[in-house]
Write a structure and sequence with these properties.
3 domains; about 500 residues; mainly alpha; five-stranded mixed sheet
Length: about 500
């Protein structure tokens, strides 16, 4: 085993170790994770929330037992593979051992540590961006048409994971046109490769067509409920924090792409990052959508710095360049990860507030960061619903109806009774069992709906009661209520079906 291979294995091992150490056991999973895991029970070529790739990973996790270890393994794996691709890109660009270590350090101690703690499509999205950029480098160096097919396949798999990769294409296209690489549009191989990519993504496109393109409705809802509170200046500021310890390396890559002779053929990357960020800013995108842009620029910058550091200064500057990302990670470690108790965060809220971490998607500051608050109260909810369900008559004919996908997903994940909670929210609207004749209803309502639920739903049943709520004050779902209705007076299944039709027609 060579020295390089040993060091690479060391980085990958450290990556996995850190991902398992960065989350305190006081926290549950985050609400999105429950939805993605539940997709394993409803495999399809598309979903209202995401393309199908995540459901395939969820199916593997389910086959392995759905333990927390495996749930956290896959985002860690995708993060480790991102380090590997950057390593290979540096080798492809002619980087030495210092460049390899610098690049791997910068990618390891970055926002990816936070991103890779959550089981969401974002980790594979970053890997897809980095791999596609690496393939562009390979094609530019070799002009081997086979890399065009690899690019098409990588784009297609990335597309089936998260539509965000379309922004990469939008930024790359004008960049190619501005450089000598525009000649690629005269090559038939390009269009055959595009055809291969279209064939791979066609099942999802057909699913979108058959379901009236819910992706556009999803984007509209995002724009109206979340993106409307995003400030474009804050988006650009966040880009500096994602790879704070690597800024010198990233900015060096910009200089190198313009003035470093060995990188002249890669100049399209200089234009690509500008166009891609402009598109993100124009669409008022969430800041983390752009995280996948930067790893390849770390590779470019690391190679340039390794070559250009003056020989007399290398013995001093090289260790400093490697240590800086690690040193800057230490204060980030203390605030950016759910490794501190909610009580600790509340007692030291000032430092979180200064970094804007207490601001949620509603544009307001809260006591905990939104993602942290979204990792509390779920098991409490599931345990209470389980207990309530066991005390019901004719419990097999009970509908568990939740206000949002987090509630439904958490109940389904933690249940000891093999329950199947549903919601009119997100993908759950397609997962109702309309073959049953429901006699009972367990209704899980968000805090603001608790006061009116009994009045609104009681007329449909013989008996009704408020059965409990989420009592964890730090949880985003604090105050979420659980109601029990028994002895249906009318056909509940028909009412549910009518509501599903109404919501789908409205959309």
């Amino acid at each position: 085993m060579t020295k390089k291979t040993t060091i690479l294995i060391g980085f990958i091992g450290l990556k996995f170790l850190l991902q398992y150490l960065l989350i305190s056991s006081e926290y549950d999973l985050q609400r999105d994770e429950y939805l993605h895991l539940d997709q394993a029970n409803h495999l399809a070529w598309g979903y209202l929330s995401v393309p199908p790739f995540t459901s395939w990973t969820s199916y593997i996790i389910q086959s392995l037992g759905s333990s927390i270890f495996w749930i956290k393994f896959f985002p860690a794996l995708y993060g480790a593979l991102t380090i590997y691709v950057v390593w290979k890109a540096i080798e492809e660009l002619g980087g030495n051992l210092f460049a390899l270590i610098l690049g791997a350090t910068c990618v390891l101690f970055s926002a990816l540590l936070r991103l890779n703690t959550l089981y969401q499509p974002n980790s594979f999205d970053v890997l897809s961006w980095t791999t596609l950029y690496f393939i562009v480098i390979k094609y530019i160096k070799t002009e081997d048409f086979r890399w065009l097919y690899m690019a098409a396949i990588t784009f297609a798999i990335g597309f089936l994971n998260k539509y965000n990769i379309v922004f990469l294409f939008i930024g790359l296209l004008p960049s190619v046109l501005l450089t000598e690489h525009r000649k690629i549009f005269l090559k038939p191989s390009l269009y055959f490769a595009i055809l291969v990519g279209l064939v791979i993504i066609s099942p999802n496109l057909i699913w979108q067509y058959n379901n009236n393109f819910p992706v556009f409705q999803h984007l509209k809802e995002l724009a109206e409920t979340q993106l409307v509170n995003i400030n474009r200046v804050d988006f650009l500021k966040s880009q500096l924090f994602f790879y704070a310890g690597s800024l010198i390396v990233i900015f060096s890559s910009f200089y190198a792409l313009l003035f470093y002779k060995p990188f002249r053929k890669f100049r399209l990357f200089f234009f690509s990052i500008i166009f891609t960020l402009l598109v993100f800013v124009y669409f008022n995108a969430k800041d983390y959508y752009a995280i996948g842009i930067y790893p390849i620029y770390i590779a470019l910058g690391a190679v340039f710095l390794a070559d250009k550091l003056k020989e007399g200064w290398r013995r001093y500057l090289q260790p400093i360049a490697i240590v800086v990302p690690v040193l800057l990670f230490i204060p980030i470690y203390n605030v950016a990860f759910p490794n501190k108790s909610p009580e600790y965060i509340i007692q030291h809220s000032d430092k979180y507030k200064k970094l804007g971490m207490l601001r949620w998607e509603d544009g307001k500051d809260h006591s905990l960061p939104q993602d942290f608050a979204d990792m509390l109260g779920w098991k409490e909810l599931a345990d209470k619903v389980d207990s309530i369900y066991l005390g019901l008559p004719n419990r097999s004919n009970t509908l568990i109806l939740c206000d949002n996908y987090g509630q439904a997903g958490a109940i389904n994940f933690y249940t000891n009774q093999n329950l199947r909670a549903v919601s009119f929210n997100a993908d759950y609207i397609d997962w109702f069992d309309l073959t049953k004749k429901y006699e009972n209803l367990i209704s899980v309502k968000e805090a603001e709906e608790v006061s009116v639920e009994l009045q609104k739903t009681s007329p449909l049943f013989q008996h009704s009661t408020f059965a409990g709520s989420i009592t964890n004050r730090h949880a985003r779902e604090f105050g979420t209520g659980i109601f029990v209705f028994t002895g249906a007076k009318m056909d509940i299944t028909s009412i549910i079906k009518a509501e599903i039709d109404r919501k789908k027609n409205h959309h």
